[in-house]
Design goal:
Elements: E1 2-7, H1 10-20, E2 25-30, E3 40-41, H2 49-58, E4 63-66, H3 70-74, H4 76-82, E5 87-88, H5 92-99, H6 101-110, E6 118-121, H7 124-131, E7 138-142, E8 151-154, H8 157-169, E9 180-184, E10 189-197, E11 202-204, E12 209-210, E13 213-215, E14 219-222, E15 227-230, H9 237-258, E16 264-273, E17 276-283, H10 290-294, H11 302-311, E18 327-334, E19 349-350, E20 358-362, E21 365-368, E22 371-374, E23 378-386, H12 389-400, E24 403-404, H13 416-424
Parallel strand pairs: 1-2, 1-4, 2-3, 4-5
Antiparallel strand pairs: 6-9, 7-8, 7-9, 10-11, 10-16, 12-15, 13-14, 15-18, 16-17, 18-23, 19-24, 20-23, 21-22
Helix pairs in contact: 7-8
Pathway: Purine metabolism; IMP biosynthesis via de novo pathway; N(1)-(5-phospho-D-ribosyl)glycinamide from 5-phospho-alpha-D-ribose 1-diphosphate: step 2/2
Cofactor: Mn(2+); Mg(2+)
GO molecular function: ATP binding; metal ion binding; phosphoribosylamine-glycine ligase activity
């Protein structure tokens, strides 16, 4: 097949890597320096929908795989389908599951999908009155797309005031933050369950666990993700059965009854609480950096499964936890200053190459005057593979140690919860 992958990050590099292994001809728009080694990069931005559609039509692309959420919310899948082109990624109405958190929360309430208690506000004064005297902490979320920056845990009333003012009065997130969701703070262990959906059925990928905080011991600000590993020991067969029955089965019922034609990746970010799994968020695409951990463990031709989803013909729902005889652990290397402002164009040196049981996925990189330089907040993602979690972790951090760029920062404790469960088990 001729495949077009849309996006430029580590997730898209992992998708291109997975697809190119099976001999497909791959284009990527716009891609990055690492993707360029595997695919033909096309200088079209993900939100330039007319140019992407024209390119796909002109090149007779057999399947477009959309990496990031923004073009899906903006209607890229809709426009591709209007031209009779196959696309893996939901249309805009379905992508609102991620693009509008208030919409998603109300659907969960309607279909009894377990989630945190919540209220939705588009008026600052009403939100403040709601919080007055309320038990803290609470979680405040921008309802719209905010690039991973729209979630704050408010541990004091003053902090909640500051967050709400920034979102709703000062427009720090633009339109994304003008409506907010305030929800109860859940405790437990967080996991990511990602399925490939054809609208009626789901093929599940191996459970993974993201590390969202910038610093070791889950300290520092929230980020887009500083690392991930898979599988997750805490997701036992019984826990996975609960997730399927309580989350995904009612979600598919929701799609059917609401007339939502959902064809693409469906990501459930879950908190495993004492009362069972509860949904923190739904996303309409593969996670990043989860993709860099789960795609190397994926069995079979990923593009072929995506094609089946796009055509609405996935062969049966796999309600069992996917088997895994290997482990993967991914460590993100980020620029100094991330997730705030950071410098670009810094030289990257060392062994930025795949090795035995070692994969280096590019996220924010470009070639400049013949040398590899940084071009984003998250720069590289180093994935180690092994027959055990300690082995995968050792290989990932070995790979990290071979790479350098000025101000490089990363977490040293990716996989710590998994290691703890293994030692306790």
């Amino acid at each position: 097949m001729k495949i077009l992958v849309v996006g430029s990050g580590g997730r898209e590099h992992a998708i291109v890597w997975a697809v190119s292994r099976y001999g497909h001809r791959v284009y990527c728009a716009p891609g990055n320096a690492g993707i360029a080694r595997l695919a033909e990069c096309v200088d079209i931005e993900p939100l330039n929908i007319p140019a992407l559609v024209n390119f796909a039509r002109r090149q007779k692309i057999d399947l477009t795989i959309v990496g990031p959420e923004a073009p899906l919310v903006a209607g890229l899948a809709d426009e591709l389908e209007k031209q009779g082109l196959k696309v893996f990624g939901p249309k805009s109405a379905a992508a609102q599951l991620e693009g509008d958190k208030s919409f998603a929360k109300r659907l969960m309430l309607r279909y009894r999908i377990p989630t945190a208690q919540f209220e939705v506000f588009d008026d600052y004064e009403r939100a403040i009155r709601f919080l007055t005297g309320r038990r803290l902490p609470v979680v405040i979320k921008a309802s719209g797309l905010a690039g991973g920056k729209g979630v704050e845990i408010a541990r004091s009333f003053e902090q909640a005031q500051q967050v709400l003012s920034g979102y709703m009065r000062e427009d720090r997130l633009g339109a994304a933050g003008r409506t907010v969701v305030i929800e109860e703070y859940l405790t437990g262990e967080e996991v990511s369950i990602i399925g490939l959906c054809d609208g009626k059925r789901v093929r599940f990928m191996i459970p993974s666990q993201d590390h969202k905080r910038l610093l070791d011991n889950d300290e520092g600000p929230n980020t887009g993700g500083m690392g991930a590993y898979a599988p997750v020991p805490v997701v036992t067969e019984e826990v996975f059965r609960q997730i399927v029955e309580r989350v995904f089965e009612p979600l598919l019922k929701c799609f059917a009854q609401e007339g939502i034609d959902y064809r693409g990746a469906i990501y459930a970010g879950l908190m495993l609480t004492d009362d069972g799994p509860k949904v923190l968020e739904f996303n309409c695409r593969l996670g990043d950096p989860e993709a860099q951990a789960i795609l190397p463990l994926f069995e079979g031709d990923f593009a072929e499964v995506c094609r089946q989803c796009a055509e609405g013909g996935l062969s049966g729902q796999d309600a069992d936890i996917p088997p895994a005889d290997r482990w993967a652990l991914c460590v993100v290397l980020a620029s100094k200053g991330y997730p705030g402002s950071y410098e670009k164009g810094l030289p990257i040196s060392g062994e930025v190459e795949d090795g035995e049981n070692l994969l280096v996925f590019h996220a924010g990189t470009r070639m400049e005057n013949g040398r590899l330089v940084t071009s984003g907040g998250r720069v590289l993602a180093v994935t180690g593979l092994g027959r055990s979690l300690p082995e995968a972790r050792q290989r990932a951090y070995y790979g990290v140690g071979r790479i350098h760029f000025p101000g490089m920062q990363y977490r040293h404790d990716i996989g710590f919860r998994g290691l703890r469960h293994i030692s306790e088990g």
